[in-house]
Specification:
This protein has one helix at 12-22, and strands spanning 6-9, 26-28, 32-35, 40-48, 59-68, 70-76, 86-96, 103-109, 114-119, 124-128, 133-134. It has 145 residues and is mainly beta. The protein has one domain. The strands form 2 sheets. Strands 1, 3, 4, 5, 10 and 11 form a 6-stranded antiparallel beta sheet that branches. The longest helix is centred in the N-terminal third of the chain and has 11 residues, at 12-22. The radius of gyration is 15 Å and the shape is globular. The chain starts with 5 loop residues before the first strand and ends in an 11-residue tail after the last strand.
């Protein structure tokens, strides 16, 4: 496997870059898992490879996002009744607490879904775990919004 991405985010600057490569990642709802004992959220997803210089239709690659230090989690607008339903990632943002390094991490999805996590700090890893494959189409975004 060549040209795989492995990215660690430990501060707000890292998080902006990580959010950009997560945009348009597609995650089956059943592959979004919170382990309260380990205080870890993991998301298995197929991400669009925005980092390629000429992506045309582009490529997708199986990836895993692991967020550590999650103290509390709340989800809205995500239908967990069907674990095969798909959630499309729009962004990942961090709002610091009054006393850093803790804060709220927000993972937002197309259609209004959101996972909000109270976190000890920014501590996450994204890693490609499979070979890249051709994408059916390049994701498109409404320029007016």
């Amino acid at each position: 496997m060549t040209n795989t991405l492995k990215w660690q985010a430990v501060d707000a600057e890292d998080l902006v870059l990580l959010s950009s490569v997560l945009q348009d990642g597609i995650a089956p709802v059943g592959q979004i898992k919170f382990d309260s004992k380990a205080r870890t959220l993991t998301v298995m997803l197929n991400r669009f490879r925005w980092e390629l210089p000429d992506y045309g239709k582009g490529q997708r690659v199986a990836s895993i996002l692991r967020i550590d230090g999650v103290l509390d989690i709340k989800a809205k607008g995500i239908n967990r009744a069907n674990p095969e339903s798909l959630a499309v990632i729009l962004s990942l943002e961090f709002t610091p607490d009054d006393e850093p390094p803790g804060g709220v991490l927000s993972l937002t999805f197309a259609g209004g879904g959101e996972i909000r996590m109270q976190a000890e700090m920014i501590d996450m890893m994204l890693a490609d775990i499979g070979p890249a494959r051709s994408a059916r189409a390049r994701p498109a975004h409404d320029e007016a919004s």
